[in-house]
Structures are given as C-alpha cells and as structure tokens.
Amino acid sequence: MSDIPGPDPDSGSDIDIDVGRGLRIAVSVVVALAVATALFGGYHQVPEGHVGVQKSFGAVTGDQLQPGAHIIVPVKDSVQDVEIRPRTYTMANTEGEGDRPSQADAVTVQTINGTTVDIDITVRYKIEETDASGFVTEWRTVGQAEERLIRPSVRSQLRDEAAGIQTSEIYTNDGRERLGDAAQQKLESAFEGEALVLEEVQVRTVDLPDSYDQALNDKEIAKQRVEEKKFEIQQAEREKERQEIQAEADARVIEIRGEALRDNPVVLKQQYVQSIDDSDKVILATDDEGTPIILQTGRSRGGNTSSADTGFSTNVTNATAGN
C-alpha cells in the first residue's frame, strides 16, 4: 500500500472562508475609497442662491453647477461657489456700517466753494447668473471686483461731480440726486461687457463740516426770527385795521346821533336839563330883545326845594340893570 495521504475532507470549507473574507475586504476598500473621495474633494455641495463654477487644475472650464450635491474628480477638479443674489457695497462715515467696518469709509469730496463733504453711498448689484464663469475668470472673487472696479469708479465720479456743485446745494434732495445719478451712470458704463448687473446707487447721507452745520443752524434761526417779526407786523396791521374800522363805526354812530338830535331839538334840550347839577350856572343866549338869560339851579337855604327841582328858575336882568 502506498503511504500518500488522501484528500482532507475539511479543505473545501477553508476555501469558502477565504472567498468570504476576500469579499469583505473588497467592500471595505470600496467604502474607504468613497470616504476618501468625499474627504479629499470628490463631493461638493452648491448652496442655494449660488452657482458652482467648475475648474480643472485651477483653470475655469466654463461649466457651471446648479445648487445641490455634485461628484467631481478629486485633485483634478474643484468648484468655486459664486453668489448670484443681489449684493450691496457700502462706503459709510460711521465705523461698523460700511464694508470696511473698522474705519470711516465715506467718500470725501470738495464742493465748488472748497467745502469738504463726506458722502455715504451704497451700490446694489448682482453677478450675472449665466456668466458666473466669466466673472470668476475676470475678477476671481467678489472682493476683487468691489475693490478694483466698483470702489474706484464711484469715488472718482463723486469727486468730479461734487466739484461743480455749490455747498448750499449738495446736501439738498436735488444735490443728492445729482450725485447718485452721476455715480450710477459711471458704474453702468464700467459694467458694460462685465458679468455684473447694476441695480441701484443710493446716496445715503451728506455730512457737512460742523462749522457749516452751525452756520446753517444760525441761518435757520435768523429765518425763524424774520418770520416771527413778519407775523408781529401782520398782527399789528390787523389791529390797526380793526381800530380804524371801530373808529369809523364810532364816528358813524356819533354822526347818526347828531342827525337825530338836530331833527329832534326837544330831546337835546331835555338831555341838557337832565345833565345840570346844583352847582351849575349857565348863561344862555340873549332873547329877542338882546337881554341875557341866566339859568341858576340849586336848593333854598332852608332845605326847601327850589324851582330847579321842578324844572328850573330864571332871573332875567336887563343888560343895564347894574347901572
């Protein structure tokens, strides 16, 4: 008999175990590769309100990705998200308000009078959605476009326009509108051929020097005083007119009363008699013969009522009686 051993009855089960282990290892490798791909740039999520500009080894390919999840080739491909919603760029004199929050960033200009004025301005714009790739190619980032295009264009145009405006006009609505229109026209011209859409340019405030503000306040106070003086003069004129009207009315009353007394002499005599008191001594006109008529009123010494109480008494004396 030969000493060569026969086949082992357990060898088949060992082969099955090795195959199962190999499959598990392969699945683990695939999962590891997927995780590594996600970790090393194979997965990209484009947020809402943005488009993804695809690049190959850093160069813009021209392909754009819509919001959502995307798988890209790691290392070789990359995606730059570009916001296409309206944006604002503000230059303000108050720290913390503008796009340079750590400093006062208003546009400083000089009027035709030589007055230095600070202008706060806001530019509202957006990136053209269909040409986001062109925007990235030309400007790379929004910050670059704002610093290299929007900011210098606005500042230079405002300075040029303000140089032809009076100080007394620049802070008015007309002056602000003129500055805003000039800046808008400048940016519209600068945006031609660019992947940028200008929506609005707004002049927010015009800050005058403190000395000019004080002069304006003094002028306004003086104007108010003039208005008050005008009001006083108008009141005086109205009072004068009222007094004149009252005087005319009083004169008319006197005139009417005089006409009435002339038409009724008995009434006049009656009023005259009623007005005489005990101490009155009145010399009336002469009678038809030229004799003076003296009217004497008073009471008798004994307290009896004289004829003046029932009317009056008269002493008629000839002009020659004393001779």
TrEMBL record:
Gene3D superfamilies on file: Band 7 domain (3.30.479.30)
Keywords: Coiled coil, Hydrolase, Protease
Any one Gene Ontology BP term: proteolysis
Location of the Band domain: 41-220
InterPro entries hit by this protein: Band_7, Band_7/SPFH_dom_sf, Prohibitin
GO CC annotations, alphabetized: membrane
Coiled-coil region(s): 212-253
Keyword Coiled coil: yes
Skewed-composition ranges (Polar residues): 297-323
Region of interest (Disordered), residue spans: 294-323
GO molecular function terms attached to this record: peptidase activity
CDD domains hit by this protein: SPFH_prohibitin
Domain of life: Archaea
Protein name as it appears in the record: Regulator of protease activity HflC (Stomatin/prohibitin superfamily)
